Amino acid sequence: MAKSLMIQGTMSGVGKSLVTAGLCRVLRQDGYRVAPFKSQNMALNSFITSEGLEMGRAQVLQAQAAGVEPSVLMNPILLKPTDDTGSQVIVNGEVLGVMRAAEYFRFKEQLIPRVMEAYHTLAAEYDIILLEGAGSPAEINLRQRDIVNMGMARMAEAPVLLVGDIDRGGVFAQLYGTAALLTEEERPLLKATVINKFRGDEEILRPGLAQLEALTGVPVAGVLPYLSLQLDEEDSLSDRLENGAPGLIDLAVIRLPRISNFTDFDNFALVPGVSVRYVSHPGQLGDPDMVILPGTKNTMGDLAWLRQSGLESAIKQQAARGKVIFGVCGGYQMLGQSLEDPDGVEGGGRMAGLGLLAVRTVFAPQKTRTRVKGKFAPVGGVLAGLSGLPLEGYEIHMGVSSGPEIPTAFLEGEGGLKEDGAQSGNVYGSYVHGIFDSRQVVEGVLQALCRRRGIDPGSLAAVDRASYQQQQLDLLAGQVRAHLDLDLIYRVIEGGIGYEG
After folding, report:
1. What is the pLDDT of residues 35-92, one digit of tens each?
2. Which of 288, 337, 296, 295 is nearest to 314 (CA)?
3. Each residue of 201-217: b (16+ CB within 10 Å) or e?
4. Residue 7's closest CA among 189, 167, 171?
5. Which positions are catalytic?
6. DSSP labels for 31-99?
7. 3-state DSSP helix/strand/coil % of the chain, to nearest 5
């Protein structure tokens, strides 16, 4: 049976996922078979495994750091918010249903056997399991039915490392306050703390670290610096979603309220001279070379927001000027003539789309979840150079779209190639998440946009994303080795919940 260590945080966004990924990489480098595990994740950025099952991207990144194939066992419960009070509940990669927050709070204890079955299956296959918490273990109103923080630590008998974010301020209060709110039963599980995102001279922190250790009764395992790494993120709190300055080639991604899988466009951001800006209102749109409508967990709700915000009109103006418009998944659905929901999947009713593609989308209760590969169809417009290029990715959507337009791509299926997406002039749409993941496709898009602007296409060179991400994970592991007390962490892992220091 595997040893374990759980990484919890003082709040969302403190860096739990990154610390877990870094430790996964270090343990792998040290020769251990290690797997990540998060019993319950809430995120709109998800991934489809080779079996066609859905899981959170953070555990995918951690699996890549550990050098293992992503599995839904690593994230048995995924919550995808549909609005402010409800989420689609995905268990072991498949949709269980949509629940209001209060309904799920009462129901989730019934999922404990499935969570523990997933955990024990992993624990039988690996040397070490690195568990990740969610939010904060000090959310005392949620303690009664907790299955993701101290409740999960107790069930897995996992010692806990608590991470705080100094960049937000008040890190000592974060860590001490969290420790102070633990129950007598929970407190012995906490073995050490970590301060994350530090900028400056660590010596200035020394007096505070000593006092923190005295107050909490556990050691500080280290102070990680603020790291500027380009790794997949799943949290809508990500800094990269802030609107930035236009680059030599400027891509504007519409920041929908329920934006999903925004990592689809990370490859562009890796190219020096290319800006990927996330815009929330017409004043931020500017004069981009390409406007991207991303995926969303609530297509009709976000289309209504697009209309009310004035961005629908601004996008149509860009299309009329001949700018490239590209919609992915829900963004593709919005570009069509109509969206119809006869079964109430997104609340029911019918809405007019942007009308830039002659496509009709009808929502159905059954969710499409599949990995795909294929090639771009013979398309026209500015991106005609993509014609015939190979593509690979995955589909996650609830609707079926049809119409007379030229398809954007052909995907391999049991009956041969099937049409995907639609294209008309400089407006393109596709259901494929990851359509821009390959270096060849990114270069094809950028070369086309450069030629249109009269810029030398050779001045912008794309990178191989998979290789780049492995390099970034190695850099992360190097920082973990340099700034965390790995001897202490290994002793905690070996000693488990009985470790006394």
Report:
1. 999 999 998 889 999 899 999 999 999 999 999 999 999 999 999 988 877 899 999 9
2. 288
3. eeeebeeebeebeeebe
4. 189
5. 329, 433
6. T--EEEE-SEEE-S-EEE-TTS-EEEHHHHHHHHHHTS---GGG-SEEEEESSSSEEEEEETTEEEEEE
7. 40, 30, 35
